[in-house]
């Protein structure tokens, strides 16, 4: 049986075109770790968060090979790494010139069969096997609602050009960005920066939006 692949089954969410479009995003469940600071820092908080997320995600994915039996389990491909980003002090969006001021929530989607009890087990099991503190990880549900998104091809530092294209699209179609404490700049990483040249990296950029009341 072929493992369930979220990217292929939900192409509109994970594989958009490189032209902006508006989409209604359903509530989804994630393994998450919160942090702050420059994600490029060697041995820094961001790198540790990623290790935690993948440790838990693969513990759940491979659970069927061990003694742990999870109700409703099905074989699946671990979805891509994602992240919500904003600036220190709560400013919306991101300032790529000030990476040390980043705040972030790094996430990986988990199937709906992952309950709080299953997640707690996965944290303990991953910590036992990996020897990494899994304590910071939490299970969250995010409801993004209506968003604009676009595929960005290139380095992370070149993202402002794609964001500007998204902003022009919003203005032309009667929408505005609608950032808040629960609706953030969102990135979905489709490429491994360790293996893919910067100019070919693919990242989905997603922003929350609302109708422009001036046009109502």
UniProtKB/TrEMBL annotation:
TM regions (residue ranges): none
Residue span, GyrI-like small molecule binding domain: 19-209
Pfam families for the chain: GyrI-like
The name this protein goes by in its record: GyrI-like small molecule binding domain-containing protein
Residues making up the signal peptide according to the UniProt record: none
InterPro entries: GyrI-like, GyrI-like_CCH_Lin2189-like, Reg_factor_effector_dom_sf
